[in-house]
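To: structure subgroup
Subject: Chain for Friday's discussion

All,

I'm putting the inputs and outputs inline so they're searchable in the archive.
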Amino acid sequence: MKRFITSALLCMMSYPIFANDNTAFYNKLLNYSPKLVGLTEFPTINGYRYNADCSGFIAFLFHAAGLNLLKIYGQGDSGVSAIWDGLKQHNLILDHQNLQEGDIIFFDNTYDKNRNLRWDDDFSHIGVVESVDENQTITYLHYGSKGVARAKMNLAHPKTYSVTQDGKKVRYNDLLRNSKKRGINPKYLAGSLYRGAARITVDKKQAS
C-alpha cells in the first residue's frame, strides 16, 4: 500500500503548476493530502529529502503541490520553529482563528521536547487544515506516532473532547499529548495546545 501511494504521488508530481495560481496550488495540495494518510516516509522531490516527522511532512506536502516551503520561507534548521519564523518574517501569521483549508497550524507543548519536565516547549508540532465543518471543528493532517494521520480540533471549545448531538458523540478535539493518567486531560487536547496558524498566498514565487 505504501508503495502504491508513493508511486501515485510521484506520477502526480510530474504535472507542474504555475506558482502564481493560488487556486490551482491549493487544489493540488488538498488533492494530495488525503493520499498521504498512513504514509510513514516520503519520497525525494528534485533532490530534496524530507524527514519522517511533522515538519518534514508539511514541507513535503507543500513541495509536492509546487511550493518549496523551506527554500522560500524557512529560517534556521530547527524544524517547526524554522517554518514559523520564516512565515512570521513574511507577515503570513494569522491574527484570527477563522481557519480554512490549507492553513498551516502550530502547537506548543505536545511533548517535553527539552526534557526538563516543564511546559515550556514552544513550536513542538505542526499540521495542515484539511477541512472545517459546521461546528467549526477542524480536521487536520499531521505526522504522528503511526505516520500521517487525521485529527480534530475546535478552537471555540479547546478543552472539550467530545459532545453528544442528536444521540451521537461528536469529537471536538483529539488528544495531542500522551498522558500517564487515565481519562481525557483537557490540557492535552489539540485546541488547548494550539499556538497559531499561517496562510500562504502563492504569488510571484518560483514553482519547484
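Points worth raising on Friday:
Residues 2-93 form one domain.
The chain has a mean pLDDT of 88.

D.
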